[in-house]
Amino acid sequence: MAYSVQxxxxxxxxxxxxxxxxxxxxxxQRIFFFAQDVRDGSLDSVPAGYEVMENSRTGxxxxxxxx
Length: 67
Known about the structure:
By secondary structure, this protein is an all-beta fold. 0% of the residues lie in helices and 46% in strands. It contains no helices and five strands.
């Protein structure tokens, strides 16, 4: 089951995903993003060292590194 969070501003549900992308220099980096539907690469929980926050202006969820 994909990790989901509901926006306090819009009430929409977003699901957490992860993808491995290749940068211009050839280095690979893992990115995390939220989508309104469940796709390939969905995650069951928030990665260690991260916390979910919501953009106060847009209401979109984001991952932030924990302090």
